[in-house]
Amino acid sequence: MNARPDVFGSVHLGYVVIETSRFADWRRFGTDAIGMHHDDLSRDLMRFRLDDHECRFLLRRGPAEDVVAVGWHLDDHTTFEQIEARVRTHGVPVVQGSAEEAKQRGVERLLRFPGPKGISQEIYTTPVLATAPLTMLASGWVTGGSGMGHVAITSAKPALMRGYFHTVFDARLTDYIDETISGVKLKIRFLRVDGRHHSIAIAAVRGLPIDPVRTRVQHLNVQAASLDDLARSYQRVHELGFDMALSVGQHTNDKELSYYARTPSGFEWEVGWNPVVVDESTWEPGTHQGISIWGHTPVGQTIVDKLDQFRLGTRSLLHPEKTVPALSGAGIPDH
């Protein structure tokens, strides 16, 4: 039997869809604080740009205050057809996005199928390039062949989530981080689909089947083009009164310098700079102790915040996490 084609390296994080009712706050956060380009489409739709793609973040009006879909940019139609065939072969429904949905996302066409934690996964090959020049406070963002950043998700079933992204996108394990925060032991798995150190991070509480985060994602990441861009956006977040979750620090595994702000929807937004790029010929997964070499200290966290996190974790026991068994299989355990 012939081995299935490997799509690794032909898949890149392309866009994120966020549902929110806090448009005014998000507009200030995205443009005035983080420094992205902003476009209003209608009263109920707006977008942020990072580069020449028409859309990197689509915000639609609604109650979720969360990420509801992730779009993956595929290099060619062959990869598109291979991934579509994988999903269909496993008996998972695939829906073609409408022409209006494709237009909103700035792509020619898209397919949608279920993803972990109820986050729809969308695939496309051809982004629509903007004709209008960028108008933004940042000098630029690192996107291109490594995608536009990463998505970090907390999970009570990390092995199943890792199995899902391996089945669909041939995601590879980059490394692990073991961390203890407020007495809670976490294990974080970092998965890559291209040269970026990771496009997906999956964090889980060790030994406990709980999810301590209300939102489907824990944070989104964008990569600043310069250290100056990172520093200036950090200052703007403070000056404009947005909550800072973690101060500037440097990660142990990808060596990225970054900070974490809290978005108007409650999940976090990481602005990073200068992470390592994986060399596929030499890279070997390892385990790092702690998420940071230095910095990344919590800002303004109180005992009330910690109690609220504990409450959310115990509440997650009553609401089973959404999985996609057909694509997760038995999952991929840690080694």
Kindly list the characteristics that best describe this protein.
335 residues, alpha+beta, ten-stranded mixed β-sheet, eight-stranded mixed β-sheet, 7 helices, 18 strands, globular
> On the 0-100 scale, what is the average pLDDT?
93
**H/E element sequence:** EHEEEEHEHEEEHEEEEHEEEEEHH
Number of helices: 7
Structural class: alpha+beta
Strand order of the largest sheet: 17-10-11-12-9-13-16-15-14-18
Strand percentage lies at 25-35%
Biggest sheet descriptor:
10 strands, mixed
Radius of gyration computed on alpha carbons: 19 Å
How would the global form be characterised?
globular
Secondary structure: number of strands: 18
Poorly predicted residue ranges: none
Quote the distance from N terminus to C terminus.
Answer: 28 Å
SSE order and pairing:
Blueprint: E1 11-20, H1 23-34, E2 37-42, E3 45-49, E4 57-61, E5 66-74, H2 77-89, E6 95-96, H3 99-105, E7 111-113, E8 120-124, E9 150-154, H4 158-169, E10 172-181, E11 184-192, E12 200-205, E13 219-223, H5 227-239, E14 244-251, E15 257-262, E16 268-273, E17 287-289, E18 292-295, H6 303-316, H7 325-328
Parallel strand pairs: 1-4, 5-8, 9-12, 10-17, 13-16
Antiparallel strand pairs: 1-5, 2-3, 3-4, 6-7, 7-8, 9-13, 10-11, 11-12, 14-15, 14-18, 15-16
Helix pairs in contact: 1-5
